[in-house]
Structure formats: structure tokens, C-alpha cells
Amino acid sequence: MSQKKVYLAVDLGAGSGRVLAGEFDGTRIELHELNRFENTPIQLPSGWHWNIPALYQSILEGLKRAAYTYGERAISIGIDTWGVDYGLFDKDGRMLGLPYQYRDSRTDGMMEATFAKVPKQEIYDRTGVQFMFFNSIFQLLSDVENKNPALDAAEDILFIPDLLGYWLTGNKTQERSFASTTQLYNPTLKNWDYELIEKCGLPKKLFKTISDPGSLLGDLRESVAKATGLTHTKVITVAGHDTASAVAAVPSKDPTPAFLSSGTWSLMGLELPAPIINEQSFKDAFANEIGINNTVRFLKNICGLWLIQESRRDWLANGQDVPYAQMASLALEAEPFRSFINPDDPRFIEAGNMPKKIQEFCHETGQPIPETKGEIIRCIYESLALRYSQVWQSLMQHVDRAPTTLHIVGGGCQDNLLNQFAANAIGVKVAACPVEATGLGNIMAQMLADGVIADVAEGRQIILNSSLVEIFKPADQVPWAEAKARFSKLTK
């Protein structure tokens, strides 16, 4: 009978979730998917919410399958999710309503309301975080401004990975990588910025001791252990923000690797030993988010494959299925560099009518309107690659040595056409892998806690052993240079 240790990763994205098992043989990690499920927000009279009970039930189903398959070889469980969202809990540990979905309109006007309390520059100087309308700071101010009764009754704020960990173990924590996405964490102090919290009029009592990735959260509740069959499995607090887990898995030996976590969002940045918070980083809107071992993810959020996902959803709603596997061939049939969009234009943030929004942008900017599906897909791919190039150029202004490789990780690294376009636009080599970066980074933190690896460098070597790296070298530099000049006029 195999004695390979098994680590279970719960990985929840904004569109789907899964429970993964990682079998470690001492050299490689072999991943197995135990349960995959949709993560579909629900619209209630109060707004858009996450169906957390359904997600929890799907997680328990995955853990049951783990117990059946691996038994006592399942050492631990780690949970990572999308960022910024949270649940409020009363003194008896009861959740006070379903957590809001970050795209809900309740944050409309909240950035301006916050800046009336605390100047924008001061917030950035304290937190070093890029301003996004859905950041936790603005969601919480909405609770204050709208007199959400749950806030008055709340004793704890639990961010989504911590919430699920509490349901599994009965123990509460606030994990550092996730805390750093809230725009209420001070990376210089390495703690909550309580002065900022008070200036914003938020309840200080909600913000408690912060834990680090690789910490023991606890044993499974007796009821959970009985329901799943996992009687000897512990829960480890991993890098709870999915991007933090993904970057932990970047298979690079560079001390400051450059990464692009490619999925619904594209997050481009560098892993650094300390935050960069100055006038230029504020102007360039870079975030300083915390990773494993207190490293800093100096990065920028870019609207990513959401554009493709929403376009496909629109076509499906109209009875026209365009499988992802066919999109590259459709794009290659379309005329290159015909029209571009600014992926970060605010109109593209909300769901619905994505092809029409793309056409409207092109019409408003005096460009040929993409009519066919191939033209729309090519417009998206080229625009994303050109936006990557812009952010890369800004990123390089903050470091003395420019990396020679961009590591693309996550589900989007399977998109070979976009990978090649990124290499062409940026002008550097792209190394694509691993697809399952988030799950592998989650598992790495569990392995560190278990003592089977000594450090992140050893973990990254194991991940490299476990993955197939695809290399994309820059090509067609002249037409891409001309395209960049045109694109820059659309994004000023």
C-alpha cells in the first residue's frame, strides 16, 4: 500500500471551486481533483451574495471523497479563495447574513465617502494598496453608511477562507495574505492599521490577531470529522488569498521573480522582500500585498479573461456556443491589430453584454467595429497583451534590474495564443506553468507546516519537478511596436 503523504487543497475562485488532493512522493506532487463545483452568486432583495452554505456543502463532499480514497494518509487541509469578501459573526459564532459578492452595487460612491474621511494619498501611504471599488474598506464603509444592523451585532469579521476554516474547526483567525487585500492592513507595521480603521469609523473590535501561512488552525470539529470520515486530518492556515498561493508556486529561482497570475483577473507583478510605497507607486496604482514568509507581491490588477468569459456567456445566452478550445483558431482567422479596447475601462467590470460593450468602445474611439466572434476574441487577446506591456513598463521603473522572464501561472497559462501575444507585446520570454499554481501553493504551505520541506525554494523546485513548462519567445516585434503606439492613445 502506498505511503505517500496527501495534502488537501480547497481552492475557490470567483466562478468555480474545487477540492484537490496532492500526493507527495518526496520529489513530485501529483494532483487529483476530488470535487469541482460552480460558484454562482445569488441575487436577493438585499443585493448580490455568495452562496456560502452551498460552497461549504461542496467542500464537505470533496473531503468525504478524500477520506474514502486516502484515509489516514490525508495529513491536512488548506483553504484559499478570491480576495476582499467577508462574513460577519455574532458573539455566539452565528453568521449574520450571507456575505456580499464584491461586484454588488452597494459600494457605489463609497470611495468618495471614504476619501471625505481620510485623504486618498494617506490611505495609500498607510496600506500601499491599489484602489479598487470593491476593496474591503469600501464594503465595510457601505455597511456603516447604510446602517447594516449586522455590523452592530458583529463580534468578528471572518474573511472567506477564515470563515470556512471556522466552520470546519471552530477556531477563528484572520490570515495575513488575505488581510493585506482589504486596504486596512499596514505592510510596514505588519499589522492592522488601527488608526485608519478608527478614522474610517469602522468597529476596531473586529480586527484581531493576524496569523501567517503555515500556521495550525486546528483539528476538524467532531461533527465534521464524523460527516467526512477524516478523523486524523488537521486544518492549516495557508496563504488564504488565491493570488498569494499562486505566486508562492511560481517555479523560479530568481530572488525577485516576475509573475502574471492569469485567470478572471490578470495580476502582474514582482515578488519583493519589502513594500514599495512612494509617489510613483501611488501614481502607477501598484498594490503591495503580502505573500508567504512575509514577502510582498508588488502588483497591479488588470481585467483578465473575464472579458472572454463574459463574451462566451453572452453568446451562450443567445444559443451560440463558442468552446474555449476553438477561440484561438477563430482569433487567428481575424485581421490582426484591427481594433483595441482598454481592458480596464470601467464599463467592462460589470457582467452582461460584453460583446456589445466592446463594440461600443471601438465605435466611440473611431476604430473599426469588431463584428464576428473571431474579431471580438482577437480584439480581447491583443488588448490584454498590450495592457500587459504597459503595466510591465511601469513595473520596471520600480526596480534596478529587469527580469528576463515573465512567469504566467494559473488557468490562463493554458491559453497559448495569449501567452505568445504577451511575449510579443512585452518583449521578454514567457514561461507558462503551472496551471494549478494556486492549489500547489496551497499545498506547499501545508508541507512547510508538516516539516517535509525546509523552505519555499525547496517547494518551488518540487513544483518545477511536477510541472511541464512551456516557453514562448518574443516575435513580430515591429507590428507589435506599432500596435503599442496606437494602444497608448486609448489608455491615456
Q: Please compute the radius of gyration using only Cα atoms.
A: 22 Å
**Structural class by secondary-structure content:** alpha/beta
Structural shape: globular
CATH architecture of the largest domain: 2-Layer Sandwich
What does the model show?
- The chain is α/β, with parallel strands linked by helices and 492 residues long.
- The protein has two domains: 5-242, ATPase, nucleotide binding domain (Nucleotidyltransferase, domain 5), CATH 3.30.420; 250-433 and 453-492, Nucleotidyltransferase, domain 5, CATH 3.30.420.40.
- It has helices at 52-70, 110-117, 120-127, 136-145, 149-153, 160-169, 176-179, 194-199, 222-228, 242-248, 279-284, 306-317, 324-333, 354-364, 373-396, 416-426, 437-450, 456-465, 477-490, and strands spanning 5-12, 16-24, 29-38, 42-44, 47-49, 74-81, 86-89, 156-159, 174-175, 185-186, 191-192, 210-211, 215-219, 234-237, 258-262, 265-272, 287-290, 296-303, 405-409, 429-432, 470-472.
- The N and C termini lie far apart (62 Å).
- The mean pLDDT is 95.
